[in-house]
Amino acid sequence: MGKFIVFGNKKLNGEVTVGGSKNAALPLIFATLAIEGVSTLRNVPDISDVGVAIELIREQGAAVVRGGGTLTVDSRNLVYRSPSVDLCKKIRASTYLLGAMLARFGKAEIQDFGGCNFAERPIDMHLYAASRLGAKTENGIMRADRLTGTDIYFDKQSVGATVNALLMASRAVGKTRIFNPASEPHVKSLIGFLRRAGVKIEERYGSFTVYGTVPESADFEIIPDMIEAGTFVSLALLTGSSFKIRGVNIGHLRSFLEPLVKSGAILRLEDGALSVGGEIDAPLHIVTAPYPDFPTDLQPIVAPLMIKYSGGSITDNVWHGRFGYLDELIRFGGGYTLSGNRAEIYSGKLRSASVKAPDLRGGAGLLISALSAEGESVIENSEIIDRGYENIVSRLSALGASLTSLPSSASSGKV
Ligand code: EPU
């Protein structure tokens, strides 16, 4: 198990640039399987989840060249192979193999898909979409000689099920309407990519209409990571530092920034860089829900602010049980009580602590808390943070933070 050793309570200076979005890059990497041509993806983050996704598409015969944040994927000569169970278990986005492989080969295997284990993560909606488009499932294998356009009605918004529905519909014969789709910026960027590849997609309030075709080459730039941007904003507030954050799409972060500003944070946008000042002087009450509401992935990132400042509450309407990280977080101070999907969080002075990262975003919340707390903190299982934050130790060090990474003795520490 790798570790971060953090010497906290340092003022941070200078500037940091937000990297490409993990949750936008992953669907696009799998989408290249549905394309019969050469795709170029730019601003691809160098994180371990991306490495696993690349291995998974290489297994299917994709020729991938990676250099300087650009990924070129030649998917003209693919051959169906069973995806490695071990790789699928490492990342949640391996579920996108269902849609991409059904679209390309008419066959896909239901696996033990991985990802952060903060809640039950069912795939019934993915399977529903596949079956609506004509796939039949037997012994864990889905098959469709021909995907056929249809109407798909989701009873709640799911990023993953919407991504898979879009991938399958992009190659289905005829028109598919997807009702109540997720509309996160990363879902919209998949739509942008598929359009570049020649798929006609119409967006209406509450539905997408996709006209299937054989998608060809596309060149696309990954959007900035809104969760990483939010992490830097919280870090600035926690450490009282006004370093510059470049590459933030403010529009994507509106629901995160608004409550902070209402409670005392001061945002400055100068020369395209965001800096954050002020202090949180009132309790924060956060309710997560699908985009454009407050993102669930930022709730473990905002909780440290509640501990440092005036407390507050988090109601998570996306992942009801996403509070496992709180037992670790309160080692830095404060406290909490839990009732159903609502946590009441109490403030307390932040002090150094030894903790274990339970999942990616929970781990990031622990890291920014350690950077704010006086003294030496240790974060075990640090490799889980590498899943979503590129070169985090060197980028934080460049801001003046004092931290080191100790890889696990058994391996390089990467997932
Ligand atoms: N759901 C179902 N059935 C399904 C699929 C989802 O009931 O078949 C439910 C889930 O249980 C949950 C809700 O629908 O209550 C939303 O889940 P969603 O499918 O949107 O989540 P996901 O696609 O598995 C992605 C991100 C997560 C992020 C969620 C919500 C990726 C690779 N993962 O997961 O990101 O929390 O959307 O925004 O895009 C992270 O980056 O750390 C992360 C966990």
Descriptive tags:
binds uridine-diphosphate-2(N-acetylglucosaminyl) butyric acid; disordered C terminus; 14 helices; 23 strands; single chain; four-stranded mixed beta sheet; alpha+beta; about 425 residues
Walkthrough of the structure:
With 415 residues, the chain is of the alpha+beta class. Helices cover 32% and strands 25% of the residues. The chain has 14 helices and 23 strands. It has helices at 22-31, 48-59, 85-90, 96-105, 124-132, 159-171, 185-196, 226-239, 254-262, 299-308, 326-329, 360-372, 383-386, 392-398; strands spanning 3-8, 15-17, 38-42, 63-67, 70-74, 107-109, 136-138, 141-143, 151-153, 175-179, 200-204, 207-211, 218-221, 244-246, 265-270, 273-278, 284-288, 312-316, 335-339, 342-346, 354-356, 375-380, 402-406. Strands 21-22-1-23 form a 4-stranded mixed sheet, covered by helices on one side. The protein has a 4-stranded mixed sheet with strand order 2-14-16-15. The longest helix has 14 residues, at 226-239. The radius of gyration is 21 Å and the shape is globular. The relative contact order is 0.16. Mean pLDDT is 95; it is low at 410-415. The structure holds uridine-diphosphate-2(N-acetylglucosaminyl) butyric acid. Residues 22-23, 26, 92-93, 116, 121-126, 156, 158-161, 182, 296-297, 318-319, 360-361, 388 line the site of uridine-diphosphate-2(N-acetylglucosaminyl) butyric acid.
Radius of gyration: 21 Å
> Pairing-aware structural class of the strands and helices?
alpha+beta
Percentage of residues in helical conformation: 25-40%
**Estimated share of beta-strand residues:** 25-35%
- The poorly predicted ranges are 410-415
- Bound ligands, named by name, code or SMILES: uridine-diphosphate-2(N-acetylglucosaminyl) butyric acid
Largest sheet: 4 strands, mixed
What is the mean predicted local confidence, pLDDT?
Answer: 95
Q: Indicate the overall shape.
A: globular
Strand order of the largest sheet: 21-22-1-23
Number of helices: 14
Task: Please report the total strand number as a whole number.
Answer: 23
- Distance, first to last CA: 10 Å
